[in-house]
Amino acid sequence: MDSDGPQRRILHCDMDCFYAAVHMRDDPSLAGKPVVIGGSPQGRGVIAAASYEARKFGIRSAMPSAQAVRRCDHLVFIKPDFKRYRAESLRIFDIFESFTPMVQAVSIDEAYLDVSEHLEPWGSATAVAQAIRRAVKKERHLTVSVGVGPNRLIAKIASDHDKPDGLTVVPPKKVAAFLAPMSVRCLPSVGPATEKRLVAKGFELVRDLRRAPADELERLFGKHGRTLFNYCRGIDERPVRLVRERKSVSSETTYEEDMALVEEMRAELDRLAASVGRSLGKRDLSAFTVTIKVRYGDFTTITRSQTLATPTRDIEVIGGVARRLLSKSEAGQRPVRLLGVGVSNLLHGRLEQLSLWTD
Ligand SMILES: [Mg+2]
Fold this sequence. Notes:
By secondary structure, the chain is α+β, with helices and mostly antiparallel strands. It has three domains: about 10-15 and about 85-230, Alpha-Beta Plaits (2-Layer Sandwich), CATH 3.30.70.270; about 20-80, MutS, DNA mismatch repair protein, domain I, CATH 3.40.1170.60; about 250-359, 2-Layer Sandwich (Dna Ligase, domain 1). The chain is built from 13 helices and twelve strands. A five-stranded mixed beta sheet has the order 5-6-1-7-8. A four-stranded antiparallel beta sheet has the order 9-12-10-11, with helices on both faces. The longest helix is centred in the C-terminal third of the chain and has 21 residues, at about 260-280. Mean pLDDT is about 90; it is low at about 350-359. Bound molecules: magnesium ion. Magnesium ion (MG) binds near residues 14, 15, 18, 109 and 110.
C-alpha cells in the first residue's frame, strides 16, 4: 500500500437488513418469518427491504410487491416507518461516534469510520470493530457487519464479505489476495454497464483487470479508467470525510414590493420549494419537516411547520405542504414582504422509491 505516510485503518459498518431488523427486534412474533418492508401487493408498491428469510425466496429490494407475493405466498408485509428508522439510526451513530469522531455517514444505516488515531484502549482496528459490534448488539439488540481495511474501498468490500453479523479484516499485505478472485462488479465504481464492457474485454475478475494497462483503461473509460486501475490494485486514497450533518435546507426571498395576492404567494412557494427540493437531491437527502416563513409588511415574522410520516425530496410534495401551511397564516389579509420554504429533520441516502410507497 501507500508507503509514504502512516497506515490508515478504516472501518465500514453496515447494519444488517436494517429496516426489517428494527421491526423484527420490536415484534418477536416476526421471528423466523419472511418479512418485507414495502408497499402493498394490491397496489403498485415495491419492496424497500427484505429480511434474510424473505431473501431465501429470491425477494430483493426494488422488486414490485405483487411479484414478491408470487414468490412467497406467506410473505409478511410491513409499512415503512421512517421515524422509527431515523431514531434508531441516531442511536447507532452515537455508538459509532463514541469510538471515533471521524464518522462519515453513507446512508441511514451505513458509515465509514477512520480509527487510525483512535485505537486506544482497544489496541487494534480489529479490536475496535469487535467492540463496536458488541456495543450495537448489547445496546440496540441489532447486528452490524463490519469490514476493516487500509482504505474505504477495502473496508466496504470487506463488510459485505460475511454478511449478516460478520467481521472481515483485510490487513494491507492481504489486500491483493483478497481482491484477486472477486468479480470486477465488487469495485464500487463498476455498475452493470461498466461490468459488461469489462467482461467483453476479458476482464471478468479483479485479477484479470490487473493485467489491463492504465492507458487502455483510460482510453476505454476516460478519467474513470484511472480509478479502476487503482481500485483493482486495492489503492484508494479517498479520505473519510467528516460530513457535518446538515440540519436544514432552506430558500427565501425578500420582495421589493409587498405582495398582496395569495395566488402570487403560492406560486412563489412553489418556486422556493423547487429550489429546496433540488438541493436535497444534490446532497442525497430527504426531509421529514417542511417549514414556511412569512414576514408581513410590518416586519413581524411567523413560521408554520408540518412533519410528514414519510421523508421526501419531492418538489411537488414540499410545495403542496408549503401552500397548505400558507393558509394557516394571515397572508392575504396582510401584505407579505418575505417568503421562505425550509426543510429539516433530514435523512441520508437514496430514497427515490419512496413515492411508490405512498399508494
Ligand atoms: Mg445495511
